[in-house]
């Protein structure tokens, strides 16, 4: 009952007129950026991060949540209409969704995606309301050993899962941790990797790294191939923008199965929604093979419904893990953790005690965001494709301008603009060589936590490393890490064998 009471107080905060405006703005911007190929919720949050410091924290995070969920809606819209997923989490939706669109069922495909995202996100939000406070109470038992184990879990699991090459994933992680170590050491007071440059004594800003890697790096990547990439072929609109009763009944079990698959991945640092969406698609494909008339390959509605529900269920649970444990499971969640830190807050049990107004208003905004996104996507999804009419040079020039303005507004330093350019080039090189970006962001955000926890634990134990594996919680985390690595290796070995056949 306490959770319900707190949630009602959160709704009272969200229904403040200005907060309602920020919910709408977040949902609109997230969807708008999501429908543009190559962009997505992570870039939207990255671009907005330096521009929201003038806002009240509650308003800022309500808007970020709308952007987070809205980006996934937009990604799916382009995956279905243009066969061009905005982010990797929407790739699974292209397989059957685009086939539905090519068969003249684009409105039904968009409706399936919108309702599936609504179902997955709403169920996840309900679970988070009751689960997040329990997780926060549980995380109150965490000390240096537990936090170090949790950070290590996020490092290794994310690096090994999100990339086909573990070396590339670990390399991206090392870059992120390396950027986090620049500056004055808080314990010894010595300079680290500053090269004697006074502007680097305070370290490299998370805002600069986020905008450089996710936004400006993507601009460079697009500019390098903009004349070589063919323009995706769109699908004309037509037909009824809703599902028949038979289609709804067919999609409902897939929505529920996809939600069940996506929920656990919201608390596992496995890179975000990519893995559960592919798992949900694979489950439906295997079930479809048992039917007398298999539909996969022809535009099966279940092949679209399950990944959409799985993706949003993971996103909703990821927000709960972020708030209660301070654990980001994707690049976008890592950016939001950086935003909390920029406001001087650290997600976890103390956040529930010190800022319950913000936490519960944010949780309440999840429900409102789901409804708003359903309203603006179910009837109008196809009109978002009109944004593709913006000439790419103008679009990406505008993004570049916002990158520079955002970073300069937070620091008023031209040196940070040079850093922005240099780190963006690093992000561009990473993209060209297939290196994942999520490990870099998670290394940058959780690197200081891992270092501080390790040093605090060793100082408290007089240099005894066994303290890092003492207690049931660290041991459980390390066992879970071994399980994730084992399953990842098994899956990659199976993929190689299948490729060799």
Automatic annotation (TrEMBL):
Keyword Transmembrane annotated: yes
Residue spans crossing the bilayer: 20-39, 45-69, 109-132, 138-158, 165-184, 204-224, 321-340, 360-380, 387-409, 415-430, 437-454, 466-489
Superkingdom of origin: Bacteria
Keywords, comma-separated and alphabetical: Membrane, Transmembrane, Transmembrane helix
All copies of domain DUF112, residue ranges: 20-442
InterPro entries named in the record: DUF112_TM
Pfam families assigned: TctA (PF01970)
Protein name: DUF112 domain-containing protein
């Amino acid at each position: 009952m306490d959770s319900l009471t707190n949630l009602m107080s959160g709704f009272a905060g969200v229904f403040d007129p200005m907060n309602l405006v920020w919910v709408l703005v977040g949902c609109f911007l997230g969807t708008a950026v999501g429908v543009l190929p190559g962009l997505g919720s992570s870039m939207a949050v990255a671009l907005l991060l330096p521009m929201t410091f003038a806002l009240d924290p509650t308003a800022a995070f309500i808007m970020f949540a709308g952007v987070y969920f809205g980006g996934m809606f937009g990604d799916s819209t382009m995956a279905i209409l243009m066969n061009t997923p905005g982010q990797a989490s929407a790739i699974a939706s292209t397989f059957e969704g685009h086939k539905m669109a090519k068969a003249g069922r684009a409105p039904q495909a968009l409706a399936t995606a919108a309702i599936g995202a609504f179902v997955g996100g709403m169920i996840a939000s309900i679970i988070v309301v009751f689960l997040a406070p329990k997780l926060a109470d549980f995380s109150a038992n965490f000390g240096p050993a537990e936090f170090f184990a949790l950070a290590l879990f996020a490092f290794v699991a994310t690096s090994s899962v999100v990339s086909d090459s573990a070396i590339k994933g670990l390399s991206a992680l090392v870059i992120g941790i390396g950027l986090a170590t620049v500056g004055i050491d808080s314990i010894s007071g010595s300079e680290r990797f500053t090269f004697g440059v006074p502007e680097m004594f305070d370290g490299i800003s998370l805002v600069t790294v986020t905008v450089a890697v996710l936004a400006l790096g993507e601009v460079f990547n697009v500019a390098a191939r903009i004349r070589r990439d063919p323009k995706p072929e769109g699908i004309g609109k037509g037909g009824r923008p809703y599902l028949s009763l038979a289609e709804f009944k067919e999609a409902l079990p897939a929505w529920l199965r996809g939600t069940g698959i996506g929920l656990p991945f919201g608390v596992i640092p496995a890179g975000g929604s990519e893995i559960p969406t592919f798992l949900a698609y694979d489950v439906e494909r295997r079930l479809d093979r048992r039917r007398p008339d298999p539909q996969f390959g022809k535009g099966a509605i279940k092949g679209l419904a399950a990944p959409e529900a799985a993706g949003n269920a993971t996103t909703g649970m990821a927000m709960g893990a972020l708030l209660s444990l301070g654990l980001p499971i994707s690049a976008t969640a890592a950016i939001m953790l950086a935003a909390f830190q920029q406001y001087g807050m650290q997600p976890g049990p103390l956040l529930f005690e010190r800022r319950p107004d913000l936490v519960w208003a944010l949780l309440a905004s999840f429900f409102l965001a789901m409804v708003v996104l359903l309203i603006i996507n179910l009837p109008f999804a196809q009109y978002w494709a009109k944004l593709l009419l913006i000439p790419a040079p103008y679009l990406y020039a505008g993004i570049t301008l916002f990158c520079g303005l955002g970073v300069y507004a937070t620091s008023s330093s031209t040196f940070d603009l040079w850093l922005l350019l240099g780190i963006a080039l690093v992000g561009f090189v990473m993209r060209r060589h297939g290196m994942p970006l999520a490990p870099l962001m998670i290394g940058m955000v959780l690197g200081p936590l891992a270092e501080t926890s390790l040093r605090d634990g060793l100082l408290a134990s007089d240099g005894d490393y066994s303290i890092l594996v003492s207690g049931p919680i660290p041991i459980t985390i390390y066992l879970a890490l071994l399980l994730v690595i084992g399953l990842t290796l098994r899956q990659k070995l199976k993929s190689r064998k299948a490729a060799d056949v």
